[in-house]
Amino acid sequence: MNKFLLVATLFVFTIMKSMAGVSDLFHYEDVSVENQLSGLSTLESLINNNTDGFNTNSIEILSTELSLQKILFKDDGSDDLIGIPPFLYGCVLGPIGILIVYALTDHNKQLVRKSVIGCAVGYGGGLVVYIFILVISIATIGI
Question: What is the pTM of this model?
């Protein structure tokens, strides 16, 4: 038994060592990271330049420079919310996904409609699977 554990441990360590050389997992593009973090540079410069504290004027400037819509939506014109389509929010999260889309998109009816359709598809698919399993189990039992 001890020999088996020794061989299994050596095998696992050999596989781990061979996989440790894969450097593609840790590769990133400097340009895309800089583009994604450019909003933080804007925020930092606004805070550093305003030494008097924040008043209503500086808060208005901050809200226009870094709006929630710029952070949540990509600049490519897609409807993806933080990289996830509204349909998937509804399909995977159900009614909670609809509420998330409703709250984060400032009540955008088209995107909420897509999440409602996703919710209906998710629940409809679950119902079809449930009925299929029910029919198979009844047929197997022979009622």
Answer: 0.49
Separation CA 38–CA 61 (nearest Å): 16
Q: Collapsing DSSP states into helix, strand and coil, what is residue 84?
A: strand
The half-sphere exposure of 13 on its side-chain side, counting CA atoms within 13 A, is 6
Ranges in the chain, pLDDT < 70? 17-28, 39-40, 42-43, 46-47, 50-79, 142-143
Three-class SS of residue 66? coil
> Can you tell me the distance from the alpha carbon of 108 to that of 104, in angstroms, rounded to the nearest whole number?
9
SS3 73: strand
CA distance 121 to 126: 8
Say how far apart CA 139 and CA 28 lie, in whole Å: 54
The tokens of 143 are what? 């009622």
Q: For residue 23, how far is the Cα from the chain centroid?
A: 25
The vertex-110 CA angle with 105 and 112, nearest 5°, equals 55
Beta bridge partners of residue 81, listed in sequence order: 73, 84
Give me 111's structure tokens: 């995107």
Q: Decide if 124 contacts 141 (C-beta within 8 A).
A: no
